[in-house]
């Protein structure tokens, strides 16, 4: 997908998510409504959000200070959708869980 460098990709995703989820009335509409959103999400890279892996620091003290296994980075929230990024350390995971009456898109970078 060619990049339009005038508008940041994350802003394009937010705009399309608003369009996609504003008109969603049932899960049957979901596949059709996401046809423009999914390619934008697929093109997203960590660099688009200016995210880079932390450099390893030596542990200090007897227990060693470590970053948490999962960190959440809030991007934006509207009445239609919420967008954020979960940053996971290598080997970390988020347990499978449910959010009733919500739809979501996941992208692993």
From TrEMBL:
InterPro entries: PCO/ADO, RmlC_Cupin_sf. It comes from the Eukaryota. GO terms for molecular function: metal ion binding; oxidoreductase activity, acting on single donors with incorporation of molecular oxygen, incorporation of two atoms of oxygen. SUPFAM superfamilies: RmlC-like cupins. Keywords: Iron, Metal-binding, Oxidoreductase. GO terms for cellular component: mitochondrion. Transmembrane segments: none annotated. This is 2-aminoethanethiol dioxygenase. It comes from Pleuronectes platessa (European plaice).
């Amino acid at each position: 997908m060619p990049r339009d460098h005038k508008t940041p990709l994350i802003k394009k995703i937010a705009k399309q998510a608003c369009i996609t989820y504003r008109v969603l009335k049932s899960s049957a509409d979901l596949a059709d409504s996401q046809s423009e959103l999914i390619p934008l999400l697929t093109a997203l890279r960590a660099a688009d959000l200016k995210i880079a892996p932390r450099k390893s620091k030596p542990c200090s003290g007897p227990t060693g200070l470590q970053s948490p296994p999962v960190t959440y980075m809030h991007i934006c929230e509207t009445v239609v959708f919420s967008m954020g990024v979960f940053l996971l350390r290598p080997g970390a995971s988020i347990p499978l869980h449910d959010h009733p009456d919500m739809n979501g898109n996941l992208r692993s970078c």
